[in-house]
Structure formats: C-alpha cells, structure tokens
Amino acid sequence: MSEPDEVLDCRGQRCPLPVINLARRLPELPVGAVVRVLADDPAAAVDIPAWCRMRDQEFLAAHPAPPAYDVRRTH
Length: 75
Fold this sequence. Notes:
Layout: E1 6-9, H1 17-25, E2 34-38, H2 44-55, E3 58-63, E4 68-72
Parallel strand pairs: 1-2
Antiparallel strand pairs: 2-4, 3-4
C-alpha cells in the first residue's frame, strides 16, 4: 500500500460527513494527489466510491483495517 499525499481522519463521523470533508479538501490539492480518507462509518464504503463516480474523481482502493479509502484528484 503506497503512501497517500494527504490523510483525512474522519473516524467517528457519520455519513455524509466523510464525503463532505473529502469534497472540501480535494480541490485544495494538486491534480494527481492521492487522499486517504479514514472512515469507520460502514456507509463510507458505498458513499465515497459513489461520490468519486459523480464527481469524475478516481477511486483507487478500499483498505479493510483501519477502514480507509484512497481517492486521486483527476481534475
């Protein structure tokens, strides 16, 4: 597992807060940057990939423990 450019710790937050925090932070990073979202709400496993599809960002991977999701900024 490669290291992300940034880690957003959203553990303990209920959805949609992890997605909202990702949506706020991603535009501040350069195109190509990878953000790892730490999120222990089970809904994040569905919400984060769905947000990436809607926003045309690249969902890279889900990690089981601790629950984490990697997203690359594409534009």
